[in-house]
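Input record (Table S2, row 569):
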Amino acid sequence: MKFDKGRLFLSKKAFAEITEPDRQRVILTGLGASIVIAVCLFFIILELSLGHLDFIPFYGVMIVFSMVCMILLRKGKLDVAKIVFIVPVLLMIAILASIEKQATGGYLYFLAAGVYIVTIFGYEKIKYSVIFFLFTVFLAFVSYFYTIEPFQPLVLSQRYIDTSYVLNFTVSLFSSLLAIYFLMRLNIKSNEHLIKTSKELKESESKFQLAIQGSSAGIWEWDGKGDRIHVSSKITQLFGYKVGELSDLTLQGMLNILHPEDLTEAKKMLLDHFKYRTPFAVECRARTKKGNYIWVLDTGQAEWDSTGRAVRMVGTILNIDERKRAEGQIKKQNELLEKANQELDRFVYSTSHDLKAPLSSVQGLISIAELTQDPEERQKIFGLMKGRISNLNAFIADITNYSRNSRLGITIEKVNLLDLVTDVLQDLEHFENRNRVEIETIIPEELEIDTDKNRLKVILSNLVNNAIKYHNYDSNNPKIEIKASQKGDACIIEILDNGLGIASEHHQHLFDMFYRATEKSDGSGLGLYIVKETVDKLSGSITLNSEVGAGSAFTLSLPKLNPSNYTAA
Ligand code: ADP
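Output record (adenosine-5'-diphosphate complex):
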């Protein structure tokens, strides 16, 4: 792996965080600090050998500052490191120039320092460059014209002056050249960096474009300052608009096209993203130009200014309509399956009981009949057996109706309601107590409904059957009314009786499977459950109004069914 010189003076973390031009400046600052340490060490040795001990503490201080500078560089605190290095160096040069005046060539360091300052701060930190450059010029003048107290000019030996001059000249020249070399290198590196970055940018842009074209996502961008949203052509197409039609969209305008039921959540997510920077991704329905809604996945990422205000946001919109609808379908089917499972459990339990009970009863009655020789007694037992068997028969009919309703498809035809009710009443002619109740039908002769005839017959048979079964035969005028009328597109059918009535606590369970509201019932408790299921199948509704002692009113509302929505079984 190629070793980068920047890593000499920077920690791994700091190296990764800063850009290439800054790395070059760090190398220069680090090299400068290293040179100062080397020169100071040289002078300490030189002065010790000559017996001059006065300046050794200053060299020591310079070494300490240079080392602090290097530590700060490693931590990535570049500006502070440069200042910690440059200020003591300038002061040191000023003192040196002041006490040795021009003889040793100490001024030459100001020149080197000037070039060096401009290089390490650069144009990006022009303020620092100018301030420290002016400070250098200021110190050069002060040290030239004045004596900096308490540093009095020294009387130096010619040998010292000569040696110092050669050294100062060489070091300052070398430092200036180093700074100029870095300035040029910086320029080349910056250019290389720029070329590399723009190449990478182009590559990533074309990859991004490819990815966007390949996906079904559209891009949107919100400019917080002007509150304008720019949407890509894919989004425009998705919502059924022509190019340019969605050009003046605001954030509120975008929210306005969301479905009212999804708006609150989407708004909350967006505000939370702006405020708490939580991820923004919301599945919601959005209105198309035609006015219908489609499911989309809207995601985005904002950008905040220094005050924490969201100033820009970029996001995508993905069409997830098909997936959402399929999910909805699966959810519905799951609910139906769950319901069917629960019902099956209860069904198995109750049917085994309801099938067994009359059979055991008939078995018992046969045993009794075998023991008796009395024809009258036997006749009575046969009558009881008949009753049990007809119960069993009714129960099996209920189960068959239930099964037919859930399995068979819907067959729609024009049904004349008066004809159908007449048919139902004819079937019930021999039903127990039928003759003890008056049945009045108030149905316009021409009233017709597009529906499934067999299913409607099952509904009406069950309701009329119950009205006869649960009538109050102690009352003066046992009566049942069957009314029907057209209301808009729906057909309203009412079955009213002045019979026993149903206590209100039973109302909400009355349409449940195997629910009986009275002990007197010898039925299966399936009748009204089948009614409700069948009404649902016909996309209708049923309501109950009943009071104990006053009677019951079942009201059906059945819509006109469109054959194109149903497939015949
Ligand atoms: P079943 O008649 O087999 O018991 P249904 O599901 O047909 O079962 O009816 C459920 C219960 O609702 C019945 O047990 C009965 O108590 C009550 N019920 C139904 N229709 C009437 C009605 N017209 N008047 C009074 N009670 C009724």
